[in-house]
């Protein structure tokens, strides 16, 4: 059992030990069992949290709101237009005000330094719901999903296909190093993770008996993979003009049946969502009209196929976020 996480912020997984991450995963399993059995667990009644969103989200917002309500918390949501932070009020002043009114603050937005500064000034736990550099709550859900599927995670091979320098790929590399998962970033050479972060993760990986591999070779990346993971090719907040360049650059890394056939027979597919796997979205239709693509980062038959665990993964956001909230506020 790790030392108590009470009062800690949850900003990036580099801040946490292997044992602390494992503790959060075990706690999430307990909360999932309670949720499914209908066991009431309003253990934080009387406390209040605020969700500060500079980037919109379905899963992150709903996970924090449902988790908070299940724990008995009061939950306030501030959308991108409802906060004066950085406009009429400094980040420091906003953090200090919110810290006087709330017991915890979630931030979803841009630069990692923003959430780090919120934690510095707020005086209460701050949770990273996504920044440009990291997406730590997503990682807990991913690993929980992997463990539910295989019964374990240490020693497995997890491959991220595509733009391997984004926040999801960064965070997958970190959590893999911490938990003994062999991580492969597979994508164009110019879209690889930051060299300093790679070096840090390789040192951590040595301690936990796993490897960090970078490759632009799809065959090498997918071969004998246990988990193939991908994300959209243009992230929220990036310019729409990037689509043409990214499509040309990343199309060879689309996760399709041919790629999944290179992986282990029992391999699973993961995606943090949303996904452009059909024409049922405005952006999907716009891309089809402009570039003729009906599917982008993942083929529809993989997304909907028997190896896909994307909706288990999405549900697990709620259980793992609940674990983070409870562990840091109890």
Account of the 3D structure:
The chain has 330 residues and is α/β, with parallel strands linked by helices. It has 13 helices and 9 strands. The strands form 2 sheets. The chain has a 5-stranded parallel beta sheet with strand order 7-6-5-8-9. A 4-stranded parallel beta sheet has the order 2-1-3-4, sandwiched between helices. Strand 1, helix 2 and strand 2 form a beta-alpha-beta unit. Helix 6 packs parallel to helix 7. It is globular and about 55 Å long.
Q: Cα-atom Rg, whole angstroms?
A: 19 Å
Written as H for each helix and E for each strand, in order along the chain, the element string is HEHEHEHEHEHEHEHEHHEHHH
Report the total helices.
13
Tell the overall outline.
Answer: globular
Strand order, sheet with most strands: 7-6-5-8-9
Question: Total number of β-strand segments?
Answer: 9
| Poorly predicted sequence stretches spanning 5 or more consecutive residues | none
Q: Strand percentage, roughly?
A: 5-15%
- Please identify the structural class as seen in this structure: alpha/beta
Using brief descriptors, characterize the structure shown:
330 residues, alpha/beta, 4-stranded parallel β-sheet, 13 helices, 13% strand
